[in-house]
Amino acid sequence: MTLKIALLPGDGVGPEVLAQAVKCLKAVEETFNQHFIFKEAPVGAIAIEKTGTPLPDATLTLCKESDAVLFGAIGDPKYDNDPDAKVRPEQGLLQLRKELGLFANIRPVLSHPTLLDKSPLKKKVINGTDFVIYRELTGGIYFGEKKLNPEGTVASDLCEYSENEISRIAHLAFKAAKGRKKKLTLVDKANVLESSRLWRKVVTKIGESYPEVALDFLFVDNAAMQIILNPKQFDVILTENMFGDIISDEGSVIGGSIGLLASASVGEENALFEPIHGSYPQAKGKDIANPIASILSVAMLLEHFGLAEEAWAVKKAVDKSLKKGIVTPDLNENSQYGTNQVGDFIAHNIVDIEDDFRMNDENIDLGKSTII
Ligand code: IPM
Ligand code: MG
C-alpha cells in the first residue's frame, strides 16, 4: 500500500515526538513492504511566525491531498498569556479539524500492567481499564458564535448541535461498542443543557438499531468522578466536544502519563492522528518528551488503513520499551533515555519484531534495564 502522509510537527515538543513517529513508520516500510510518502508543512505558532496565520493555505491543501495527517502538537505560552491576541496557534488545529471534516475524535484509555504504579490512582482501581472516548470534534461550544460586547465586559460562546452532527458520531461509537464490550455511555449535562437533551434523544433513537449494545447515560460531573473512582465500568464513552476534551485529559491519569495517549480524528474523507498532549513548551529541545503517544498515533493510523499486523508490531514494540524500562523521565525520573533513544529503540524493535526478549521480562523493573 502507498499512503501519502502530511507531517505537521507544529510547536513545542511536536517536532521531536513526530520525528520518532516517522522513524517508526520508516521501520514499518522496511519490515512490511509498505510505502509512505511524507510531506511536511507548518502549523501553529511556528506558522504564525512564518506566514502570519496558524494554518497557511499551502498546509491545508497538502492535508486535503494526503491520505492522512500526522500531527505533532500546537500552542505557545506567548499566546496563552495574552488574552488580546488576535491570532492563536490553536485556531490552526481547530480550523484544520473543521476544514477536513474530522468530526470524530477517538481516544483510547488503557492501563498498562508495567505502569500501574506510575498513576497517582490505586492499582486495584485502574488495573484492567480499557475504554475509548468518542469525542465530537467539529461542533459545540468550540465552534458556536462567539461574542464580546464593545466594552469588553461581557462575553459568550454558543453551544449548538444539530441532529446530524450527533447521529454521525453516534453511529461510529455504537459500531465500536459492538466490536468491544458492548456498552456505550453517553456523557452529557441533560439536567441543565438543551443541547444535551438533544444528544440524549438522538442517541437513544439510534440505540434502537444497536440492540446488542447496552446504552447508559451519565451527567458529565458524575462521569468526571466515575472515571477515576471506577474506570473499569466503561467501554465506549460518547460525548460532545468540550466534555470530551476535559475527560480525556482526566483519563490520561489512568495510563500513568499524558505522554502515552494517542488519538485519531476521522471524517468522511480525511483522517488525522495526534497525541492528546499539548506542546509542553518547558520540554522543548531538551530531548525529554515522551514519544509514545505520537508513536501510538501511528499505530492508530495503520489500523485506520486496515494494516492490522503493522499496527500490532508498533504496539508490541512500544510494550517492549515499557517492559524493559526504555522510557523517558515522565515514566521514570531516573531514566537516562531521551526522546530520540526511546524512538530508536521502538523503531528498531518494529524491524526486529521476531526477536526474542533476551531477558526475563518479569524480572525487569521499570528503569533498571540497560539494554538499548
Ligand atoms: C486537544 C487540545 C485542543 C482541544 C486544543 C489544543 C485546541 O486540548 O486536542 O484536546 O481543545 O481540542
Ligand atoms: Mg485537550
Structure description:
This protein has 372 residues and is an alpha/beta fold. It folds into two domains: 1-102 and 267-372, Isopropylmalate Dehydrogenase (3-Layer(aba) Sandwich), CATH 3.40.718.10; 105-260, Isopropylmalate Dehydrogenase (3-Layer(aba) Sandwich), CATH 3.40.718.10. The chain is built from 13 helices and twelve strands. The chain has helices at residues 14-32, 45-51, 57-65, 77-80, 89-100, 123-126, 163-178, 194-207, 220-229, 241-255, 292-304, 308-323, 339-351; strands spanning 2-10, 35-40, 68-73, 104-110, 130-136, 146-148, 155-157, 183-188, 214-219, 236-239, 262-266, 271-275. The strands form two sheets. Strands 2-1-3-12-11-4-5-10-8-9 form a ten-stranded mixed beta sheet, with helices on both faces. A two-stranded antiparallel ribbon has the order 6-7. α1 runs parallel beside α13 (339-351). The longest helix has 19 residues, at 14-32. It is globular. Residues 356-372 have low confidence and may be disordered. Residues 245, 249 line the site of magnesium ion (MG).
